[in-house]
Amino acid sequence: MADATLLDKVHDLSDLELAALICLVAQEHCIIDTEPDALDDLVQELELVASKVFGVTHAVIDCSEHTSLDDFAHAILSVEAIPTRSNSPVRTRQDYFLHSPAFGSMSRSPVTDSFGDNKTIANVIIAKNLDEAPRQVQIQALELMRTKRIYTRTSVQNAPKRFLFIALLAGGEGPRLTKHLNDYMFISHFHDPEDGFPNLEDIYDDGSSISSVVKKSPSQEPDVTSDARISAADIEHLTELSHHTTVCVEVKQYQQNIISFLRLHRAVAGGISAPATKHFDKLARCLAPLHDLSYATPSLVSLAARKIYLHRVQIVKPEKERSMQWGSDLDAVATLLEGIGAEDVIEDVLGTAGAETPL
C-alpha cells in the first residue's frame, strides 16, 4: 500500500488535480467539463496544475471549426521546460474519494517545415473546445493518444512517458466528441466554478498579475516547477500498486451487473462498449491505492461507474425506445424520457432499483 506521506499529498489535492493524477496513474486521458463562462479560468488552472503540482510541460490548443491539422500539431509541440516559482498551498475538494458527494486512422497530415526539431510533444495537452474542432482534427487527436506520436515532414515526434490529453468542454451532457474519440477517453469530470480555482486564487493572493504569470504566447516556453508536489516516482508507485489490486469474484460480478443494467436501461441507446468495460475495471483498481486499500470494494466500483460512463451514455430518442415496438404511446414515452440525462441513468442503476450491492 502507499505510504502515509504520499497519501497525505493525494488527499490534499483538489478535484482537478485528482482527475489529472488518476489519468497519469492509469496512463489514460480524460474529458473535463465546466460552465462556458468559466472555461478560460479552467484552462489557466489546468496549466498551473501541470506545472506546479506535477512539474511537467503543457500546451494549450484553442479549437474551433477552422482549426487545421497543422494548427493542432503546432500547438502540442513544446520546448524544454524551465523552472518557475515554488508552489503555494491548495484548497481541497475530494470528488474521487468515498466520503465526498459524490479505430481506423486517417491519412496523416505532415507538419510544415517551420516546425523546429528542438521541440517535443508536451506532457499535458489541454484541448479547449475540442468538440468544435473538425472531424479530421479529432481523429488526429485520437491517433496521437493511441500511438503516442505525431509525424512531421522531417521526423516523428514521440509523446513523453508521462502523457495526458485533456479535452476541455463547456456545457452539455453525454457524448459530444466523435464516436471513437469519445469512447477512448478514460474518465469525464465536471468542475463546478463554485468549487473555485485554487492555484489561480493563490496567484491573486500573491498580488501577481495573471497575465504575466499564466498567459503565454505560443513561442514562449511553458512554466515547469522544479519541486513538484507529486513526483514521477509517486505516480509510478501508485501505478504499480494499481496493477496488484485484488478484485474478488463478488465485486467482479457486481461490476458486470452494473454493465448489464446500463445496457438494458430503457433510456440508454448506447455507449456501454467493450473499451468502457476495460476502463471501468481499470479505474476501480486505480482508486484502491488512493484509499489505502489493496483490493477493490463495491463503493469504489460505484465511484468508478460515475466517472467512466458519464460521457458515454447516449439517451435514446422516444421513437427508438424499445417499448415502442410493443405498441407504447409515443407521447407517453417522450414524457417519460423528458429531462433524463446520463447522470440520472447511472444513479438509477446504482440505486435500489439497479444492481444489488454485495455485502
From TrEMBL:
Query: What's this protein's name?
Result: Magnesium chelatase
At the top level of its lineage, which domain of life is listed? Answer: Eukaryota
Q: Which Gene3D superfamilies match?
A: Magnesium chelatase subunit I, C-Terminal domain
Traced from the root, the source organism's taxonomic lineage reads: Eukaryota, Fungi, Dikarya, Ascomycota, Pezizomycotina
Which organism was this protein described from? Answer: Hyaloscypha bicolor E
